[in-house]
UniProtKB/TrEMBL annotation:
<dbReference type="InterPro" id="IPR003591">
    <property type="entry name" value="Leu-rich_rpt_typical-subtyp"/>
</dbReference>
<feature type="region of interest" description="Disordered">
    <location>
        <begin position="156"/>
        <end position="191"/>
    </location>
</feature>
<keyword id="KW-0539">Nucleus</keyword>
<keyword id="KW-0540">Nuclease</keyword>
<dbReference type="InterPro" id="IPR001611">
    <property type="entry name" value="Leu-rich_rpt"/>
</dbReference>
<dbReference type="GO" id="GO:0004535">
    <property type="term" value="F:poly(A)-specific ribonuclease activity"/>
</dbReference>
<dbReference type="InterPro" id="IPR025875">
    <property type="entry name" value="Leu-rich_rpt_4"/>
</dbReference>
<keyword id="KW-0378">Hydrolase</keyword>
<dbReference type="InterPro" id="IPR036691">
    <property type="entry name" value="Endo/exonu/phosph_ase_sf"/>
</dbReference>
<keyword id="KW-0805">Transcription regulation</keyword>
<dbReference type="InterPro" id="IPR032675">
    <property type="entry name" value="LRR_dom_sf"/>
</dbReference>
<dbReference type="InterPro" id="IPR005135">
    <property type="entry name" value="Endo/exonuclease/phosphatase"/>
</dbReference>
<keyword id="KW-0963">Cytoplasm</keyword>
<keyword id="KW-0677">Repeat</keyword>
<dbReference type="InterPro" id="IPR050410">
    <property type="entry name" value="CCR4/nocturin_mRNA_transcr"/>
</dbReference>
<feature type="compositionally biased region" description="Polar residues">
    <location>
        <begin position="1"/>
        <end position="18"/>
    </location>
</feature>
<dbReference type="Pfam" id="PF03372">
    <property type="entry name" value="Exo_endo_phos"/>
</dbReference>
Amino acid sequence: MNSFPHQLIYQPNGSPNGPVSPVHSPTHTPSPPTTSPGQTSPLSYPVSHGVPAIYSGGNMLFPFQSKLQPKLQSPLNHAFASHSLLNQNSGPPGQSLMQQTNMTVSQSHALSVTNTPHWQSQLSYYAICRNSNSPHHHARQAAAAARNSNLGNLGSSAIAITDPNNPNKPPLNGILPKKEKEANGEKQDQPFQQWMTIDLGGMGLKNISKELFHYNFLTTLYINHNNLTYVSSEISKLRNLTILDISGNKLSVLPPELGMLTNLRELLLFDNLLVNIPFELGTLYQLETLGLEGNVGLNDTIKSILQKDGTAAVIQFLRDNCQVPPRPIERDWIMLENEAGGDRDTFTLLCYNILCEKYATTQLYGYTPVWALEWDYRKELIMSEVLSYNADIVCLQEVDTSQYDEYFKDTFHNHGGYDSVYWPKSRAKTMADWEKKSVDGCATFYKSSKYQLIDKQLIEFNQVALQRPDFKKTDDMFNRVITKDNIAIVTLLENKETLSRVIVVNCHIHWDPTYADVKLVQVAMLMDELDKLAQKWCTSNSPYNYTSPQKISTIICGDFNSTPDSGVYEFLTRGIIRQDHDDFGDHRYGTYTSEGLSHKLSLKSAYSNIEELPFTNFTPSFTGVIDYVWYSTNTLSVTGLLGGIDKEYLTKMVGFPNAHFPSDHIVILAEFRVKPPQTIPQPPQFGLSNSGLQRRFNSSQLNSRR
């Protein structure tokens, strides 16, 4: 059903269905020329340049661009420009606004008593909000601004308006989008852009259709000055909202799901009937303005914090005092093969980026309660979770040097029977002893009852790069690769009972998404160095006849900071990358970009046997798979995998860490069987297996097999 059946394009002269050149921001647009400049917005908002918006209500949709032209010289244009309330000569900040508004006695008294900048800003916004109670107030202001700024350029400002419920239908106003114009050989007058704003304000609405919440591309939504008594929890689907105005309604409660809208910068709730604010709104860590004035019965604690310390303090209070949600159900253990081979031929490996102490800050994780970021809380949760899986081999990333020495090393040994190998990142070499303690690195733990350490090796990517003669004359190597101090640690373990050996690589690749080339180069160097080590570790003095590197079982795991569509994933899976791969860009890295990359192992991501997990890293700004366990398919087979996080639990979470998950990453865990010596030469099998049976993972059941 089309919620907006009739659509009209608003042209600069004020009449529908004509060319338009939208230029004004949809966010708190100033009043028409008949009003004072003092009634304009004190702030501008982060809506993308040149993005048309549609203000909708009844039978009208108004498209316009998101930003006013930067230089407006005419007096008429000046009336539409933003004016800082702090620079007006008509009195204290916000005074001119309040003089033009029917302020109540209590509100005026609040301003005289509470003289903080936070509360003055609150009252200024409140006055502006009360002046926007006419139907489509923001749309009309935008249309007026468009008329004023484009009177001389009507011919080139038309944009296509499509049915929002069926964008494949031809534009209603006859304007063809870019791709259709080009197909017809026509020159594009203006880029075709999608509207991202809707204004349903001042219409007296009692209900909002849930169809509106399917428009998850919206960044701004005005449903102010209506007769709404509730807001549907489905509003949480509008994850891209940065501005939400629900002022001037009859709301007595808010849906806790508003806390899922973590991109919000403005949440205006003026003039409602609110008494309490859901603690779940504490996850709105990017919120800059929370409008609450005019809710007469508002909780005194919330109002006092807002008056004294502003929006950020209110969000912090809500966040740190929110009730801990119920724990998620245990993760599934997914069986891919039966256990006919017995314990002696199988082992489990766990990989986990634990989020080191110095990175777990409120600046980076503002949605997480402060107490849940505290290291003393998180380290116990990390240790409890890892030990509960009782894995034979544990590979951790982001382990602080001091935390390894003072906590992890002995605790893993005493409570899990693990010995370990640890190295910090390369920067530690240049630091004093007291500085080294805060440097993070990689740690590999192994069951001392099952394995003995044969050898170990540190791979420092910047040092390897310096030693390559083909890299010495490349500026990109010096400017982009050598400045990164990421590492990998390689251990050669031997099963004490079967004498089978396994190479375990634990690595942490550079994080920055703009350095895809560096990630690919680091992994390429890792594979080159690994081949050299495997050559050194070959031996015929073993029932497994390790006479070539390909015959030694190999695990490569860690935080690769690369998604499944990356060059890193492609390289490890396929064993080859062309020299002109997109991830290299225009950068030059010796033979890597002149001849391409290759490695000799037949590798496969353990989770690709079922399909990669929905995510291994979960934050409001990024949710995806970047952690992997790769294995040599000719020597190992996957018999079991730890499943993903409970989906129902995730519907109420904006990201990790939280009370139950101490890192922004999650544990990944796989069980492997070592193939008998006579089957090792068989070619690799790259087919997917989807026939595994699922059962509820129970750590005690896994423990019983060790």
